[in-house]
Amino acid sequence: MLGSITPLGERSRGGHWRTTVSWYLGGTTVAGAAAGWTVGSIGSTVAGAVDLSGRSALGTLAILILAGAAVDARLFGTRLPTVHRQVNEDWLHRYRAWVYGVGFGLQLGVGVVTIVTISAVYGALAAAFLSGSGWAGAAIGAAFGFVRGGTVLTAAAVEESGQLVRVDARLRKWDGAARRLAIALEVALAATAVALAFV
C-alpha cells in the first residue's frame, strides 16, 4: 500500500499525490466511523440488556487489550486471527485516483476486511462496542481510521525509485521495534483503562 500511493506513483499515473491521499484519508476516516458507529450501537443494546457499568466496560476492555498484546507478542504460540486478503492493486491502473483512493480507504478504514497484523485493530472495535454508544463508537472508529490511514504519509517524500527502495528498507528495519512499541502501548492503554475504572 505504501509503495503504491506515493508522489512518484501518482505522477506516473498522471495524478496528484495530495489529492489521492485526501480521498484515501477521507475513506479510512468515514469507514472507521461507520464501523465504530455500528459496533457502538450494538454495544449500546447489549450494555442495556446486561446492565454493563462503565467500570465493567473498562475492565473488560483492559482484559481484551492485554490478551491482544499477548497474541501480538506471540506468547504460547498464539497467532492473530485474520482474513488473507488485501486491496486490489489493479485498481491503480483501472480507475481514477479518487476512486481507488476512496476505495482503498474504505476497505482499510473498516479494519477487518484486509489482513490484520496487530490486535489493536480488534481493540479499537472492542472499545467502540464497549463505549455503549453509536456516537462514541463513531468517534473511536474515526480516530482509528484516520490514524491507520495516516501511515501512507510516511511515503510523502518518495519522488524517485531509489527513495522508494530506501523507505521500504527503513520500514522493514523498524518492523520489530514498531511491534515492541505497539505492545508496550497496548499494555499502557490497558493499565490506563484499569486506572480509570477505579477513579
SSE blueprint and pairings:
Layout: H1 7-12, H2 17-50, H3 54-72, H4 91-94, H5 97-110, H6 120-130, H7 134-149, H8 161-197
Helix pairs in contact: 2-5, 2-6, 2-7, 3-6, 3-8, 5-7, 6-7
Give the CA-CA distance, first to last residue: 42 Å
Mean pLDDT, as a whole number?
93
For the secondary structure, the number of strands is 0
- Give me the secondary-structure category: mainly alpha
The number of distinct structural domains comes to 1
Largest sheet, strands/sense/barrel: none
Strand content: under 5%
What are its keywords?
199 residues, mainly alpha, 8 helices
Give a verbal description of the structure:
It is a single chain. The chain is mostly helical and 199 residues long. It has one domain (7-197). It is built from eight helices and no strands. It has helices at 7-12, 17-50, 54-72, 91-94, 97-110, 120-130, 134-149, 161-197. The longest helix is centred in the C-terminal third of the chain and has 37 residues, at 161-197. It is globular and about 55 Å long. The model has no long low-confidence stretch (mean pLDDT 93).
